[in-house]
Write a structure and sequence with these properties.
about 170 residues, mainly beta, six-stranded mixed β-sheet
């Protein structure tokens, strides 16, 4: 009997991101802070270490498909305080949360908004996705296809660890 050799498919499944399920670009062992499908086959995910503190851990923004991630920011796993800003606000009947960062001349804003209906004739509204902004002008607006399944995980933790950002101030 010869030596058992795993097939290439088994090896790929063992090391590939859990995004094979189609819901995230985060890998097994990482925490998914935010993830959704924005186009027919593209995902945006905010992934991080399982343990995130004021001095240790990492967060990365990832965009693309499980087989071809087009953007990873920051490229190396680094503490988020040097790379990201976060803003969260709760208000009567809703909330909003934004995680933003810069790549060159572009500012990316991953957002999550919810507003409850003001009357029985209205419906609750939920919106999530990413804005890509250049010089205060929105270049791309990619909405989550299923925003009701999306919400920043541990927004309170992110708000404490990351630098505060005012979404409406485009630096």
């Amino acid at each position: 009997m010869g030596l058992w050799r795993p097939s290439l498919a088994l090896v790929l499944l063992a090391v590939a991101p859990s995004a094979l399920s189609g819901t995230t670009l985060c890998t097994k062992g990482e925490r998914t802070h935010f993830s959704c499908t924005v186009t027919k086959n593209k995902l945006l995910s905010v992934c991080g270490s399982n343990r995130l503190t004021a001095k240790s851990g990492y967060i990365q923004y990832r965009f693309g498909t499980p087989s071809s991630v087009e953007l990873i920011y920051p490229p190396a796993k680094a503490h988020p305080n040097d790379h990201f800003y976060f803003h969260e606000a709760a208000y009567s009947g809703g909330y909003m949360a934004h995680l933003s960062f810069r790549v060159g001349a572009y500012r990316y804003v991953v957002y999550d908004h919810y507003s409850s209906a003001k009357s029985p004739r209205q419906t609750n509204t939920k919106d999530a996705g990413v804005l890509v902004i250049e010089k205060s002008k929105t270049e791309r607006y990619l909405k989550c296809r299923s925003p009701h399944d999306t919400r920043f995980d541990d927004a309170n933790l992110l708000a404490v660890i990351l630098k505060h950002d005012d979404f409406f101030h485009y630096r």
